[in-house]
Amino acid sequence: MWNDLAALVPPLTVAAVFFAGVFWVVRREMGGKRRREDVPEKRRAGQ
């Protein structure tokens, strides 16, 4: 039984890293525009 689980660890690790990366990219792309719109123009220009 432990051999079967040991054989599944590398694919599950790769899948977990892949989904974490997809989540990070989607979160950054979807949330970044909203945050930039909330910042007033003066703060965005560095004044």
Layout of strands and helices, then pairs:
Blueprint: H1 2-38, H2 41-44
Specify the helix fraction band.
Answer: over 70%
Rg to the nearest angstrom? 20 Å
Terminal Cα separation, in Å? 64 Å
Low-confidence stretches: none
Strand segment tally: 0
Count of DSSP H/I helices: 2
Major sheet size, sense and barrel closure: none
H/E series: HH
Mean pLDDT: 82
The rough form would be described as: rod-shaped
Q: Could you say which structural class the secondary elements and strand pairing correspond to?
A: mainly alpha
Range of strand content: under 5%
Notes on the structure:
By secondary structure, this protein is mainly alpha-helical. The protein is built from 2 helices and no strands. The longest helix is centred in the middle third of the chain and has 37 residues, at 2-38. The radius of gyration is 20 Å and the shape is rod-shaped. Keywords: Membrane, Transmembrane, Transmembrane helix.
Gist of the model:
Keywords: Membrane, Transmembrane, Transmembrane helix. The protein is mostly helical and 47 residues long.
Q: What descriptive keywords fit this protein?
A:
47 residues; mainly alpha; 87% helix; 0% strand
